[in-house]
Amino acid sequence: MHGKVIVVTGALGALGRVVVDEALAQGARIASVDHAPTQAPATVDLFELGGIDLTDAAQAGKAINAAASHFGKLDALINIAGGFAFETVADGDPKTWQRMYALNVMTALNASRAAIPHLAASGAGRIVNIGAMGALQAGPGMGAYAASKAGVHRLTEALATELKGKITVNAVLPSIIDTAANRASMPKADFAKWVTPKELADVILFLASDAASAVTGALLPVNGRV
C-alpha cells in the first residue's frame, strides 16, 4: 500500500478507525471522510474531512475532489459509511427503510460516482464496499437493513461490470463485527466467533491493493469463526 492514496468513508467509526490505522501502517496516505466533525489537523499522510453528509451528492463530490486535490491523486475508495436498524417489518417505521437506503446505498453510490474519474486516472483504481452476510438471507427485524445492504451488493456488481478494465469494484460481507456497540447489544453472544475489525481491515486492504488486480465483482463473506 506504500504511496497509495485512499479515501475511507465512515473513517471515525469502529471499523473505519482500524482500516485507517492499518492503511497508514502499510504506508498509504489517507483522506478520512466522516459525518462527525474533524478531529485532527492535516498531516503529510492523513487529511480529515469532517461534517460531510454523503447522502448528499454535492457534499460527497466536494469531499472526494478535495481529497484528490490535497494528495494530487486517488487510488482507492473504501466505502464504510453506513447505518443499522433493527425492527420488524410489521411494527417498524417505513421511514427506517428510507434511512437505511440513504445511509448504506446512497453514501456508497455518491462517493463512488465522484471518485470514478480520479480512480480511472490512477491506472490501478479500487473501490471496496461493505455489504453484509445478513443481506444474503434476512432474519427477523433485519428487513430494512438487509434490503439496503442487498442494494450495496447489486451496486457493487453493476459498477464492477461497468468499470471492468479500468477500476476493480468488490465488497466484503461481514457477519457480526466484534465492536463495543455489538457486545453491548448482544452481551450473551460468543464474541470469540465474531470477526474482528483487524481481520476485516486486512481483507479490505487486500482488495484495495495491487495484489487484487484480478479480482472484481466479488462479494466476499468474512464470517469469523462461526
Automatic annotation (TrEMBL):
Q: Which GO terms describe its biological process?
A: fatty acid elongation
Extract the Pfam families matched here: adh_short
Q: Which GO MF terms does the UniProt record name?
A: oxidoreductase activity, acting on the CH-OH group of donors, NAD or NADP as acceptor
Q: Which CDD domains match?
A: DHPR_SDR_c_like
The Swiss-Prot or TrEMBL record describes its family as follows: Belongs to the short-chain dehydrogenases/reductases (SDR) family.
- What NCBIfam families does the annotation carry? PRK05653.2-5 (NF004204)
Name of protein: Short-chain dehydrogenase
